[in-house]
Each structure stands twice: as structure tokens, then as C-alpha cells.
């Protein structure tokens, strides 16, 4: 059975499905309680029962159309040989960053059926409990974004080390990105095999590149991921990058079904410029802190703009941890016409 979400992603309906990026998270009290049981984030993610529970919490709480696997974009890095840990207040940290060609020989392959068995188990547990009317989404980070953590040693909004490696040693950069792209594509295919109905590529830091640099530093490697999926699965693909309105022309040439757009993009202009493209998102995540009538009005604007074409209702970025539940309810109910 094709769900509403899948039909929309494939362009088969103008009825609007709704979900939210980072929809499992700290704004939900049940998530905070679940998270408190684990000493660190990776142990939480690697517990299939807990990951499945976190995945299902938003669909149990709200009338949304998709559950996205509770995981992280960096889960493959430890198996490639990177010393990854999550530090409170700092986020992901890598003790042995990739900075030169001498590290190429140290890159390891990832045996997905063994190393990511907890992902398989979590997806299958969710699939058994999730309503047939709702979609289950698998996801990965874009190769550029995953590589940036491996190169920078943590989060970077400038991508200084990543760009330095690209400019000074493009062969080493390409070797790392190609390795990551291969594994990322295979991992996305596995998620489809393990029960995901649709697949999301979150290239979170691509917006920090110019269009010229994106075409060289990121797009070829994202295309490797997409091609692996296209060769092995019929699952629709959603591509999202934050702060990347200047890159939409490049995204439009990717072989994906849906392009996620953030709240800084002018949706009406995109709909005019790309009449055949399906978009997702655009509602400012901070609007969920507004009064219900404001949330309703802004959501209605998007619904009106897209009334004659497919569109997946979502936020422009991940839901913020302090978001009031009443704000989420106002957003979802407006989409539902309640």
C-alpha cells in the first residue's frame, strides 16, 4: 500500500502529508525521560528498543504522516576508523580527524549488516508497530556533511579545514569523500531493505559552500549516493540542506523526488521557477513559539501556495528543543484542516 507520504513524494497527490525534522527530541517530555536512561548519546542510538521508542513517540503524540528513524548522521564514522564521541555542550567530537593523504590508508570499510545491526533492528521494530497508513523514513547525512565532521574534528560553521583540504590536496579530499559516499549510499539502500518507505539525505552544511564549490566539493559525491539507491531501490528520495537557497539550481538537477527548503527560501519564487519539482518544508521552526492563530495563518499561506501541486509540509529546519507542544499541535491541525 502506498501511503499518503509516498504518494506525495512521487507526485501522485496534492493532498498534503506532514512531519517535522528532528521530530523526536527534547520538546517531548517522554523523550527526555527516555534519554535520561543512557549515559551518552551513542549508547542511546545503538539501543534498538530505545531508538524504536524514540522514533514512534512523535507519531503517537501527533497526527503526523511519517516516522523518521531516531539515529544520527555520523553512525558510520566509528566503523570507518574515526574516534567519535559526543560531548555535552559540544556535540560530536572526533579525536583523529582526517587532514592529509597519509590517512587514506587508515580508512576502513563498514560491514553494514554487522556493524549497523542496531539500525536494522530499530527499523524493523518500528515497522511492526507503525500504522500502515504512515511512512517510515530512513536517512543519512550528505557525504560533504559527514566528511566535514571527519575533517574538522567536530562541528564547524566555516568548514575551514574541509575547504583547506579540498584546495590544497584535492586527491586526498576526493578519496575521503568517495569512501564516505560509497558507504553512505550502501547504508541508505540497506535502510530501504530493512523497512524504510522513503529515504532522506540531510546535507546539513552544504549551505556553507558557494555554488561553484558545491558543484565540485559536494554534488558529485551526493550523486554517488543517489545512484546507489536508484540502482537498488524504488524508494523516493528527499534531499535537504539548511541555509542553501543559493544552491537550489544545483539541487534541482539531482535525481531526487523532493527538495527540502528552509524558511529563508522564498517558496513562491521556487514554485514559479521549478513548476515540475516537489518541495518540502519552508515554515520557520521558530514560528511554533507564536500564538496559534499566527501559526495557523503562516501554515495556511504555504497550503494556499501549494494547493494545486504536491508538497510535503514540514519546518524549514529541525524542531527546536524548547518548542511548546501547543505550537506543534497548531501546525499539524492546520494542515489537517481541523
From TrEMBL:
Catalytic activity reads: uroporphyrinogen III + 4 H(+) = coproporphyrinogen III + 4 CO2
- Domain Uroporphyrinogen decarboxylase (URO-D), by residue range, is 17-26
- What InterPro entries does the record point to? UROD/MetE-like_sf (IPR038071), Uroporphyrinogen_deCO2ase_HemE (IPR006361), Uroporphyrinogen_deCOase (IPR000257)
Keywords recorded for this protein, A-Z: Decarboxylase, Lyase, Porphyrin biosynthesis
The EC number(s) given in the record are 4.1.1.37
Q: Which PANTHER family does the entry link to?
A: METHYLTETRAHYDROFOLATE:HOMOCYSTEINE METHYLTRANSFERASE RELATED, UROPORPHYRINOGEN DECARBOXYLASE
Protein name according to UniProt: Uroporphyrinogen decarboxylase
Source species, please? Hallerella porci
Amino acid at each position: 500500500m502506498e501511503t499518503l507520504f509516498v504518494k506525495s513524494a512521487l507526485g501522485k497527490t496534492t493532498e498534503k502529508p506532514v512531519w517535522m525534522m528532528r521530530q523526536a527530541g527534547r520538546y517531548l517530555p517522554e523523550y527526555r525521560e527516555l534519554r535520561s536512561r543512557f549515559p551518552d548519546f551513542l549508547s542511546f542510538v545503538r539501543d534498538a528498543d530505545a531508538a524504536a521508542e524514540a522514533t514512534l513517540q512523535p507519531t503517537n503524540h501527533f497526527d503526523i504522516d511519517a516516522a523518521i528513524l531516531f539515529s544520527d548522521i555520523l553512525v558510520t564514522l566509528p566503523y570507518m576508523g574515526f574516534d567519535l564521541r559526543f560531548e555535552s555542550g559540544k556535540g560530536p567530537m572526533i579525536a583523529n580527524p582526517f587532514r592529509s593523504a597519509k590517512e587514506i590508508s587508515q580508512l576502513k570499510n563498514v560491514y553494514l549488516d554487522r556493524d549497523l545491526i542496531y539500525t536494522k533492528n530499530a527499523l524493523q521494530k518500528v515497522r511492526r508497530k507503525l500504522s500502515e497508513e504512515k511512512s517510515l523514513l530512513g536517512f543519512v547525512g550528505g557525504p560533504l556533511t559527514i566528511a566535514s565532521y571527519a575533517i574538522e574534528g567536530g562541528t564547524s560553521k566555516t568548514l575551514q579545514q574541509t575547504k583547506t583540504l579540498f584546495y590544497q590536496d584535492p586527491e586526498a579530499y576526493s578519496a575521503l569523500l568517495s569512501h564516505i559516499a560509497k558507504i553512505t549510499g550502501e547504508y541508505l539502500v540497506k535502510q530501504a531493505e530493512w523497512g524504510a518507505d522513503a529515504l532522506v539525505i540531510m546535507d546539513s552544511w552544504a549551505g556553507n559552500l558557494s555554488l561553484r564549490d558545491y558543484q565540485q566539493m559536494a554534488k558529485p559525491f551526493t550523486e554517488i549516493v543517489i545512484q546507489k539507491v536508484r540502482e537498488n531501490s524504488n524508494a523516493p528520495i528527499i534531499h535537504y540542506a539548511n541555509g542553501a537557497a543559493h544552491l537550489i539550481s544545483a539541487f534541482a538537477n539531482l535525481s531526487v523526488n523532493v527538495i527540502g527548503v528552509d524558511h529563508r527560501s522564498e517558496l513562491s519564487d521556487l514554485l514559479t521557477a521549478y513548476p515540475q519539482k516537489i518541495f518540502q518544508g519552508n515554515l520557520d521552526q521558530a514560528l511554533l513559539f507564536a500564538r496559534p492563530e499566527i501559526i495557523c495563518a503562516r501554515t495556511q499561506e504555504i497550503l494556499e501556495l501549494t494547493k494545486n501541486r504536491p508538497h510535503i509540509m514540514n519546518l524549514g529546519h529541525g524542531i527546536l528543543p524548547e518548542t511548546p507542544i501547543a505550537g506543534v499541535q497548531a501546525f499539524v491541525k492546520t494542515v489537517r484542516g481541523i
